[in-house]
Amino acid sequence: MAEQIVVQLRSEIDVGSFTYELRHGKAVTDDLASGTRFSEISGYLKRISLDDTLSEQQQDNDFIHEVVHAINQVYLDGELEERQVKCVSNGFHQVLKQLGVTFRLQPSEGG
Question: From CA 24, how far away is CA 50, in angstroms rounded?
């Protein structure tokens, strides 16, 4: 089994020359649930919203998925379709998991 590497996610992540805010917590989770989503990205607002009540495996997958969307927006002018983003992000998730790399959100304020 590979050595475990836990990457503690900060409140921001850079993709190219753009800084994306990472948002999570009860208000974000409630907003996502109202639209039956686990995560979302806003290229306009430069923010990624993640439901932090999901399993760690699902959080990893969703984080990677939204980062692939950001890469698509910054470097490919949004040319990838959702199916392609899903396939690429699932592939990255599988490889990173096999290598023992996981991502953890910092605890949100108030819980």
Answer: 5
Distance CA 73, CA 85 (A): 11
Helix axes 56-75, 82-98, angle to 10 degrees: 130
Amino acid of residue 84: Q
pLDDT digits (tens, 9 = 90+) for 67-86: 999 999 999 999 999 999 99
Predicted TM-score of the model (pTM): 0.92
pLDDT of residue 1: 60
- Cβ–Cβ < 8 Å for 105, 22: yes
Residues in the chain: 111
Question: Can you list the positions of beta strands (E) in 1-111?
Answer: 5-9, 12-15, 18-23, 39-42, 47-50, 101-105
